[in-house]
Amino acid sequence: MLVIVVENAPPRLRGRLAVWLLEVRAGVYVGTYSRKVREMIWEQVIGGIEDGNAVIAWAANNDAGFEFETCGSNRRSPVDLDGFRLVSFLPSEARPRDVPRDTDPGRDAVRPNDVPF
Q: Cβ contacts of residue 109 below 8 Å, gap of 6+?
């Protein structure tokens, strides 16, 4: 089994993928091909993705039962953890720091301007 998911892909690439794979939802393509054909399809995705991004996943004989690769810019990034591939999720923007607290026990602990809303 082979699955390719594309986001913001140009119509030319989507049409090319539809020649080889079945588009079951917008941007989601599935099929069953050999390693050689899978690599040929993925090379076409890498060459034609432009400003979009894509992920390919396929059945493999490993602990997870599948392998995957990505291309393009995305908040999700594959990482290797002791030979096991996981996905790191990057925040869209910096998280606010802890709310500053006043240490004077006679005053309110949080001032209205300290709340990061």
A: 101, 102
**Within the chain, what is the greatest distance between any pair of CA atoms?**
72
Beta bridge partner(s), residue 30? 3, 22
Of 104, 53, 43, 101, which Cα lies nearest the Cα of 77?
53
89: number of Cβ within 10 Å: 10
6-48 pLDDT, tens digit each: 999 999 999 999 999 999 999 999 999 999 999 999 999 999 9
- Where does 21-96 have alpha helices with state H? 35-48
Indicate the CATH number for domain 2-89: 3.30.70.240
What are the sequence ranges of the domains in the chain? 2-89
